[in-house]
């Protein structure tokens, strides 16, 4: 699925360009163009490596923050939750301690905030965390967050379980 994520990553880049075109956003076009021109000047090998690495990072981030959480498989499962509650139940935030990890996660360590406010710029998610935590506390909803390594361990156990080799251990 990491290879498929490469294509997802490329698709998201194309969708970003389509959005820029539809909205005629000159600032976004300028910044995006600088990034793509930088890749062109570095050569196709670096550009391809960048896209493959980006796709890989997207894959490990998106899968780790989703697939170890509650799965809402049926309409009956889905009807138990409001939209907001379903986002709390099916996603997990990641607490990253280093500047490098924050950079590599690219704002997606705030997965719950991303799901609740998908059009909000990702640089605003961090300021939203205390508000989301307070909302969860006031409404008796579990706010799920783990460190990077603990989350990846949990995800690995989930993958191993669904591969048929072990039960998922409750944590």
From TrEMBL:
Supply one GO BP term.
Answer: lipid biosynthetic process
Please tell me whether the keyword Nuclease is annotated for this protein: no
Which residue numbers delimit the Fatty acid desaturase domain?
A: 8-145
| Molecular function, one GO term | oxidoreductase activity, acting on paired donors, with oxidation of a pair of donors resulting in the reduction of molecular oxygen to two molecules of water
Residue ranges annotated as coiled coil are none
Regions that span the bilayer: 36-62
Q: Which UniProt keywords apply?
A: Membrane, Transmembrane, Transmembrane helix
Please tell me whether the keyword Amino-acid biosynthesis is annotated for this protein.
Answer: no
GO CC term, one of those recorded:
membrane
Q: What is this protein called?
A: Fatty acid desaturase domain-containing protein
User: Which organism was this protein described from?
Assistant: Didymodactylos carnosus
